[in-house]
Amino acid sequence: xxxxxxxxxxxxxxxxxxxxxxxxxxxxxxxxxxxxxxxxxxxxxxxxxxxxxxxxxxxxxxxxxxxxxxxxxxxxxxxxxxxxxxxxxxxxxxxxxxxxxxxxxxxxxxxxxxxxxxxxxxxxxxxxxxxxxxxxxxxxxxxxxxxxxxxxxxxxxxxxxxxxxxxxxxxxxxxxxxxxxxxxxxxxxxxxxxxxxxxxxxxxxxxxxxxxxxxxxxxxxxxxxxxxxxxxxxxxxxxxxxxxxxxxxxxxxxxxxxxxxxxxxxxxxxxxxxxxxxxxxxxxxxxxxxxxxxxxxxxxxxxxxxxxxxxxxxxxxxxxxxxxxxxxxxxxxxxxxxxxxxxxxxxxxxxxxxxxxxxxxxxxxxxxxxxxxxxxxxxxxxxxxxxxxxxxxxxxxxxxxxxxxxxxxxxxxxxxxxxxxxxxxxxxxxx
Length: 431
Hints:
Blueprint: H1 2-9, H2 14-54, E1 57-60, H3 64-67, H4 77-85, E2 90-104, E3 109-117, H5 119-122, H6 128-131, H7 135-142, H8 152-156, E4 169-174, H9 175-181, E5 188-194, E6 200-211, H10 216-221, E7 222-226, H11 227-234, E8 243-248, H12 254-264, E9 269-272, H13 273-276, H14 278-316, H15 318-326, H16 331-367, E10 369-370, H17 375-380, E11 386-387, H18 393-419, H19 423-428
Helix pairs in contact: 1-16, 2-14, 2-16, 14-18, 16-18
């Protein structure tokens, strides 16, 4: 009965109730949609970091990450790769060499991290191969609808991921590094490095391909060559491995897999993508807290408006409330009625706002938000300028609970104000 009365009471002044509901609706749309944008950006950044940069897990010699000395290689890396690759949670394992080098062109030079890889195995762990310029990019750039119309010159200028055998040693570099060195596909670059005996050595490489991802810092600092070629240049034996990169079947298996590997290889350094890129791991872990913090601030601001509205409701109905208490309605039922009115008022606007926000998130989650006009800034931070908002279902349930709590808190002061009325004095008040 009291639920029905409370629901009818909020519609006694339709305009005032609608204004409060609209305010709550707009607050929910703004809060949830902005949260979905940030959540989508974060999740997309993590996926791309795993896909192109780090893989899920990396294993190193415990001293290798301190200063990346050549001598700190893994013992029996082939056996380890076989053991780990046979685990059901693991999609693939790639063996790598990783050393800092100086790379120079005819224009300039810079320091980069040179990765020695097995191209076929690396394809199963990261997707750099998929980011190398190919004829699809040229078709899009030059507007050819029919690939057969592309000239031989354009076909020859396409980059490859170590796919085309030549008499030259091949290297794949990032787009930002290519711009800095002022080189293109088939250009020659010189790599200088230190060998195992401490001497300086180097090699001439031809740019086989240029990759483009959404992290310009990674593009500018990481280059790839074939593992055996790098081993020969450094003086290490063929098969030497500084790093095992592991790609999992399911992201959710990360923690369990980390524990399993730490137990199996206690003397090695086992690092997840969160350890390799700690700033990204920290942002991801704190994001959920920050999203709720933003929603609490929005609801707190709305709460003051709701308190003001309910105070007006109570002051307008002084005589009515006095009469109800005079004919026997106890104070707890009066308190409950005002609280329910506040909850219904807030929850109605909240539900409408969440429904509209869910529609917006679903639409833009599929269509995307194109911010390519700011691509340079986004990519400098490692983020994709094409945003796909997304938010979990649990977030909506949590927001519903927060709306109800906000309404309960907002109703306390107006309800206490009503309970302090003396029924006899309230009945004598002329409105």
